[in-house]
Amino acid sequence: MKLILLGPPAAGKGTQAEGIAERYSLAHISTGDMLRAEIALKTPLGLEAKALIDEGNLVPDDIINRMVAGRIQREDCANGFLLDGYPRTLAQAEVLSELADIDAVIDIEIPGEIIIRRVASRRVCPACGHTESVQPGEEEICEKCGAALIQRADDTEEKMRHRLEVYHESTEPLIRYYTERGLIAPVDGAMTIAEVAEQIFGILDAKKEAEENE
Ligand code: AMP
Predict the structure, then answer these.
(1) Residue 114: pLDDT above 90?
(2) 8 Å CB contact between 64 and 92
(3) Which structural domain range is residue 64 located in?
(4) Backbone φ and ψ of 120, nearest 5°
(5) Pairing between strand 131-133 and 27-30?
C-alpha cells in the first residue's frame, strides 16, 4: 500500500503513522522528521530549511519533492510506504502523482481550537523522534527511549496559529484534489489515539480485503 496521511499540524499524524507503518509493514516517511535530521546534521539543506521551519513556513516545493523522490526509491519502500506531512501543496501532489500510484489518503479532521489546546502539552524526543503529550508536573522523559523530551521551536501557540493559516491556504485544497480522485478517507481526529487508530485500521483493513478479493 502507498498511503498519504493528511491533516493539520498536531492532528496526530506522526503518532498514527507509527501504528499504521507497523501494522501494515510500511516505510514511515515523515518529511518533517527528514528536515529535522538535516538541521541536526547542519547540512546545507538543513541550514536553509531551519529558519522557514522555526517560523512555521513551508520549505520550497522543489527541495521537498527531490527529497521524497529519492526516499521512496529506497529498499524499505518495496512493500509500500506511508507519507506523513507530504504532500502539503497542490504542486507537491502533482509531482507525487508522477512518482507513485497512491492507494488511499487518510484525512485526520480536527478543529483548530483543539490543536491550539494540544500544542501546549506536545513534546518531541530529540533522540528517536517520538511525539507525546505531557501533563503539568510530569517528568518529561521519552516513553520509548528515555531521552529528555523537548518542545519544538514551532510548537508555541503563536507559531501554531500561523501554521494553521498556512495549512488552510496551501494544504487544505488537497482534500478536494484527492476527493476528486476518489482517494480520500476522512477520520475524526478529536477522539483518543486508540479510537483514531481503530477508525484508520478499519478503513485500511477493508481496503486490503477488497484488493485481495479482486
Ligand atoms: P511536520 O513535522 O510535518 O509538522 O513539519 C514541520 C515543518 O517542516 C513544517 O512546518 C514545514 O516547515 C516543513 N515541512 C515538512 N513537510 C513539508 C512539506 N511537504 N512541504 C513543505 N514544508 C514541509
Answers:
(1) yes
(2) yes
(3) 2-212
(4) -60, -30
(5) unpaired
Cβ-count burial of 49 within 10 angstroms (0-12 exposed, 13-18 middle, 19+ buried)? buried
Cα distances (Å, whole numbers) of residue 47 to 43, 67, 209? 6, 15, 45
Active site residue 88: yes
CA-nearest residue for atom 14, ligand 1, is 32
CATH of the domain at 96: 3.40.50.300
Q: Any residues with CB less than 8 A from the CB of 202 and at least 6 apart, and which?
A: none
Global confidence as pTM: 0.94
Q: Which single residue is written with the C-alpha cell 500544542?
A: 119
- Is the pLDDT confidence value at 211 over 90? no
Nearest to 54 by CA among 123, 126, 130, 156: 156
* Counted domains in the chain: 1
106 touches 6 (CB < 8 A): yes
> Average pLDDT for residues 157-180, to the nearest whole number?
97
Question: DSSP code of 35?
Answer: H
Judge whether residue 214 has pLDDT over 90.
no
Distance CA 66, CA 71 (A): 9
Is residue 29 lining ligand 1, measured as CB closer than 6 Å?
no
**Each residue's pLDDT tens digit, 121-141:** 999 998 988 899 999 899 999
163 pocket-lining for ligand 1 (C-beta < 6 Å): yes
59 CA distance to ligand 1 middle (Å): 7
17 Cβ partners below 8 Å, 6+ apart?
5, 28, 30, 82, 84
